[in-house]
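Project channel, design review

CF: Before we commit to the Scopus umbretta constructs, I'd like one complete example in the thread so the newer folks can see what an input/output pair looks like. Taking Steroidogenic acute regulatory protein, mitochondrial.
RD: sounds good, go ahead.
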Amino acid sequence: AAARPEPAGDVSPSRFSGVDLSYITQGERALQRALSILQLHTSWQAETTLDAGAAVSSAALPGLGKVFRAEVVLAVPVARLHRELFERIEQMPQWNPSLSRVKVLQRLGTDTLVTHEVTTPSPGNLVGQRDFVSVRHRGRRDTAVYLVGTTTHVEPLPLQEGCIRAESRLSCIVLQPLAGDPGRTRFTWLLSMDLKASATMLRGGWIPTSVTNRVLPQSQADFIKHLRRHLSATARP
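CF: and here is what came back for Steroidogenic acute regulatory protein, mitochondrial:
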């Protein structure tokens, strides 16, 4: 049976508009989709990118294409990671140089956000700047926290000058305390994105799938490296 995280406790239809409820529904559906993937007995293939102690693997899944899974154990408790990755999401560009801006456009209850993220150009401008408009949603089950994100088109933000509007098909970070050591966290991250690939323009425009498949696992490894460095630099004595 599919594991279902605890539902948000403050979501009442009378509190939100129809558009607001559609965002919440998008987030909840993304979470259920991620849970179904996590429970699949899928054959994940190891990727060549292994950095910051993270193992990155991939699998081709119906409706999503190639999904990358990064796994690592971080020497901080779940609550600290949860705070950095959800509650303090707008501060992420301060420690993650791949992001130039993260803005929360809407907060819907305590568990759903609508965000706008702008990347920095990759080295050599191979990919160029992308931006994303996403619904982010969190759920909890037992001691685990699930942080999911997916592109939304409900009320699209105008295109940003110099950016290509990319899409996050699905992102899900699972934070689980390590058995017997609640001060450490098993961090699992599922990621599927459309950077607007499969055409021939490389510089700032559309990029081939082969480049996307190289960039995404590297971006996961880089994110974990920057996160670990940030957590170490801001650790309390």
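RD: helpful, thanks. The chain has one domain: 18-234.
CF: The chain has three helices and ten strands.
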